Description:
Layout: H1 5-19, H2 24-45, H3 59-71, H4 77-97, H5 102-109, H6 126-133, H7 141-155, H8 160-164, E1 171-172, E2 178-182, E3 188-192, H9 195-208, H10 227-241, H11 255-270, H12 273-280, H13 285-288, H14 290-294, H15 296-304, H16 321-325
Antiparallel strand pairs: 1-2, 2-3
Helix pairs in contact: 1-4, 2-4, 3-4, 4-5, 6-10, 7-9, 7-11, 11-12
Amino acid sequence: xxxxxxxxxxxxxxxxxxxxxxxxxxxxxxxxxxxxxxxxxxxxxxxxxxxxxxxxxxxxxxxxxxxxxxxxxxxxxxxxxxxxxxxxxxxxxxxxxxxxxxxxxxxxxxxxxxxxxxxxxxxxxxxxxxxxxxxxxxxxxxxxxxxxxxxxxxxxxxxxxxxxxxxxxxxxxxxxxxxxxxxxxxxxxxxxxxxxxxxxxxxxxxxxxxxxxxxxxxxxxxxxxxxxxxxxxxxxxxxxxxxxxxxxxxxxxxxxxxxxxxxxxxxxxxxxxxxxxxxxxxxxxxxxxxxxxxxxxxxxxxxxxxxxxxxxxxxxxxxxxxxxxxxx
Length: 328
């Protein structure tokens, strides 16, 4: 029997961050999924997580775990699939470290993801975005920061992790103000900013002051802004903006909706999905095609380009007075 603990340590301390170059956020996501699985396994096998053995992690245990998180934690099929993906990633790492586990790992790799509905993405209209960006009090330091932070997030279509981890050294204040973003897969992209966004960014840099961090955006204590901190700030201004924009009432807006909103506005303006994909930093253009499903203008152009069939028209004639009275 082979202890599990040393392999888990190598996976999270060496393989994911160093060998694969995964971001801190991705490592945290995988860690959370594996933590849930190991707690479940330890509880079911009545041992401490540190006393688990690799040979005990079989396909049946994984399936029991997936059923459990759906039933007890009420996880959606999408969440269930992401937990399964994290477990499979660990198992792929395991089979190279311990070849005798290849058959056991193969059985786990054969577990299929669940099909689930893929809803249209949630986004904001340009009027809603403008109302939110106008909500901060820009006569105060924190108001200037909040306006600049939300504006950069929207204009750059940034993921929240890209925003809060953006270092000040990656901001270029040359003739064309731009930011250099490191996205998923450690892929870099350089994004020019609108003049309005650049103006808000310059205003923030003027009052940011000397703080002991490289992060562009900091909290009231001078520490880097956190993901949860930005989400809280965004929803604070959503509540303020909802007083003028009824469609925002009682809505919880995630930072990712700013990214979706920018992508849709850009698609409607350029009509070029390739440019949108480059702006968002997608590795595969097929990922960007979710915006084609959401944008009604794309379907409207298709409808207007086709001549509809010419059909014979007529009026319904009721067979008797009783049926006729039902249509009155």
